[in-house]
Amino acid sequence: MNQHKSTFRLIATRPWLQLWRDERGVASAYALILVAVILILGAVVGLTNLRDHIVQEFGDLGVAIDSLDQSFGYQITVTPQMGPPQVVVSALYIDQDELGWSDPNGQAPAGLSFAPGFPGSQGEDGPIP
């Protein structure tokens, strides 16, 4: 029993040894910094991915709306019992694709891009040198 007390006194009298063995708060501060860095990196990557997918969906919606075909035609035939002969009324409208948007793989959908437009460059849609 006396041997343990003398060892404890020896540790208590040497402050550098006490600081070396003291781990209160040090691990949690490093752990908090590590967790915060991982969360921030994950948030940046996740929000960038979310932005890209939202832009892709808006582009797909634009291409879908552009490809709607509103062409129509009708013909009405009126055959009276008395009077002039048969009357035919008709109409036709052909909806032409004026914009011609497409959504090729590996490119920005419908030409949407959030890259800065530098003179002489195509932003993030340009070829990689």
Indicate the topology.
Blueprint: H1 2-13, H2 15-21, H3 26-66, E1 72-78, E2 87-93
Antiparallel strand pairs: 1-2
Order of helices and strands: HHHEE
Helix count, DSSP H or I runs of 4 or more residues: 3
Gap from first CA to last CA: 76 Å
By DSSP, the count of extended strands is 2
Strand residue percentage: 5-15%
Radius of gyration: 37 Å
Strand order of the largest sheet: 1-2
Shape: rod-shaped
> Helices and strands: which structural class?
mainly alpha
Major sheet: 2 strands, antiparallel
Q: Give the overall pLDDT as a whole number.
A: 75
Low-confidence stretches: none
Q: Helix amount, in percent?
A: 40-55%
Instruction: Tell me the number of structural domains.
Output: 1
Note down, in words, how this protein is organized.
The chain has one domain (2-116). With 129 residues, it is mostly helical. The mean pLDDT is 75. It has a two-stranded antiparallel sheet with strand order 1-2. The chain has three helices and two strands; from the N terminus they run αααββ. The chain has helices at residues 2-13, 15-21, 26-66; strands spanning 72-78, 87-93.
